[in-house]
Design goal:
The protein has one domain. The protein is built from 8 helices and 4 strands; from the N terminus they run H-H-H-H-E-E-E-E-H-H-H-H. It has a 4-stranded antiparallel beta sheet with strand order 1-4-3-2.
Length: about 220
């Protein structure tokens, strides 16, 4: 196999860990069905969080950012952190507080949603709201990590301007998808969140974005 495609070939260790993760997720789902009276709709919505988490973990494990110097590393960290805050905001992990009927003025609680959707940490007060769904948190952290690796690649590339445009377009997809589909926060409930079908589109966008950022072609 050519060097350019060598990093896409799974190793025996990768396959073993993949089997462990998939079995753990299957066990979590079966356990959830056994101890709950779930009636939230179609099965695919229970699988989407695992797609996000598995794709994110695979891309992160397979990506090894290399910084030429401390300056590039610092710039990459700052830009990747800003990107994470941006997608986290538009993706509903945090934002300005909003009142809902029956909601207390402020509080912190754990929502025991299906695996991957939960357990979700929910917090709100008069100023901000936070809805930390596990699959979104893992997914957006992975995107930020891949953006960091992309920035370091761009810093060492002869066509950094072209790569910067490429990465900017691909990175913006999750933000655009969140705006277009109107992804709801955890506070509105799982059924209301998935009823619009927004996660069908968001999951496709997320997977494609991760694939592009992991591929991130460069010309030295």
């Amino acid at each position: 196999m050519s060097t350019g495609f060598a990093r896409y070939r799974p190793t025996g260790e990768s396959l073993l860990w993949g089997a462990v993760v998939l079995n753990a997720e299957l066990f979590a789902l079966l356990l959830y069905f056994a101890i709950s009276n779930y009636s939230g709709g179609e099965l695919r919505y229970l699988l989407y969080p695992f797609i996000w988490i598995n794709v994110a973990l695979l891309a992160v494990v397979k990506t090894k950012p290399i910084a030429r110097n401390d300056r590039d590393r610092l710039i990459g960290l700052v830009l990747a952190s800003g990107y994470f805050l941006l997608v986290a905001y538009f993706g509903g992990l945090f934002g300005p507080a909003h009142s809902m009927p029956g909601m207390p003025a402020s509080g912190l609680r754990i929502a025991w949603l299906p695996p991957g959707w939960g357990p979700a940490l929910l917090f709100h007060n008069g100023l901000v709201r936070v809805s930390l769904m596990p699959f979104k948190l893992v997914g957006y952290l992975a995107l930020a990590y891949l953006v960091y690796a992309t920035i370091l690649d761009a810093a060492g590339s002869a066509i950094s301007g072209l790569l910067g445009l490429f990465s900017c377009v691909s990175c913006s997809w999750p933000i655009v998808a969140s705006l277009v589909t109107g992804v709801a926060g955890a506070g509105s409930g799982l059924a209301a969140t998935v009823s619009s079908g927004s996660y069908d589109i968001s999951t496709v966008v997320f997977v494609v974005t991760v694939a592009l950022l992991y591929w991130r072609p460069t010309i030295r």
